[in-house]
Design a protein that fits this description.
The chain is of the alpha+beta class and 180 residues long. It contains four helices and 13 strands. The two termini are 29 Å apart. InterPro entries: MoCF_Sase_C, MOSC_domain, Pyrv_Knase-like_insert_dom_sf.
Length: 180
Amino acid sequence: MSATVIGVASDGTHRFSKQPRPAIRLLAGLGVEGDAHAGVTVQHRSRVRADPTQPNLRQLHLIHAELLDEVAAQGFAVAPADLGENVTTRGIDLLAVPRGTRLHLGAHAVVEVTGLRNPCAQIDAFRPGLLRAVLGVDDAGQPVLRAGIMAVVVTGGEVRPGDDLRVVLPPEPHEALRRV
């Protein structure tokens, strides 16, 4: 099965969910045009409070639709864009790609994976109990973050549902994703 973009979203206001769109435009070094999280420096409110000069490693949020399918099977109604992601994919285990992986979205856009999204309590405010469903625990009892990945935009371009997604791995040795 090939990897595909199944949904795109943006929102100019800091809200939990984003608005599904027919297309989004990615801007190199910034993120999604018109999105509240676009910028060279951090835009997530908690990160701005900690240090507003930090580089924005969270310009684009991606979630794999297989996670939405999994939580739906547990009784949670969650659609693309509901968890605040800009791009919803199908056919790739986003959580398994190494840091530095480049994702080619559509004809022109390229993003570089920076790390894992850190799910927050807002997920439970959206759907009570959903936070536990998007967190896992590994064999050592450590939390496993499963609420998507974050990336920076390397090459801008328009991205639409139905666009192909191509994966280019970085040179080895590969570095596992961590929270950003």
